[in-house]
Design brief:
- With about 250 residues, the chain is of the alpha/beta class.
- The chain has helices at about 5-10, 50-60, 85-105, 115-130, 145-155, 155-165, 165-170, 180, 200-210, 230-245; strands spanning about 10-15, 25, 35-40, 65-70, 110-115, 135-140, 190-195, 215-220.
- The protein has one domain: Alpha/Beta hydrolase fold, catalytic domain (Rossmann fold, 3-Layer(aba) Sandwich).
- An eight-stranded mixed beta sheet has the order 1-2-4-3-5-6-7-8, sandwiched between helices.
- Helix 1 (about 5-10) crosses helix 2 (about 50-60) and helix 2 (about 50-60) crosses helix 10.
- The longest helix has 18 residues, at about 85-105.
Length: about 250
Amino acid sequence: MSTPSALWTARSGRDRDDGPVPVVIGCEAVVPVGTVLLVHGRNGAPDQPQIAEIAEAYLARGWRVVAPELPNSIALPASGPADRLTMDGLRRAAAEVMVWTRARWPDVPLALAGHSLGGFAIGHLAADLGDPHHVLGVSPVLSGARLLAARVAMGPPAVAALEREVPLMRAGMEAEDAAPALARVAAPLGVITGAEDGIVPLTDARAYFNTAPNGRFFGALPGQNHCPAGPDVAAMLGVALAALGA
């Protein structure tokens, strides 16, 4: 059996190489029901298993998937130095792709999905957009302060690694908070997370869900960590998307 990443890669193609942020696009439907902007997190990439799992769930329901290759990711060597990443920079790059996506397909619903820091980004983007079809966060980061607190709970080596690997992000973390934006999002929202996630603990994933005024689905998967993937995740994504009207 093919893995989700292999399936997604076979069904998608890279586009917009001439733009500031390249994107990978997949679509199997002759007439897509809508477009979802799928935003990866720190050191992410469209073909990673946790992103491919989400993409596959949307493709199966007739959606077009637009997955950007965001700057400063170790998984994307052409994206720039990973140590230059900031939460605001990731958010702004995703916003630029959202504007491009909306302009290219203006007449279909636009949904937002994001993993980890991608969840932080789409919280802001959903408020900027004003009318997303729905919002789906997977292991979503709500704020830099919560992300830092989780690192502190892991112990000094985890904090030191953060300071060494992403010094610019670490310097600005306490000021970054998606909660005020997320609280203005009227669209249906769902959250899926790994019950064993240490980077975004279960309490933080619940806080993300509870901040939104129109939470429709929350699911925590036993045995899954920060990058959930596999048959149980695929099944839960199907239920979540149904709950969100996708």
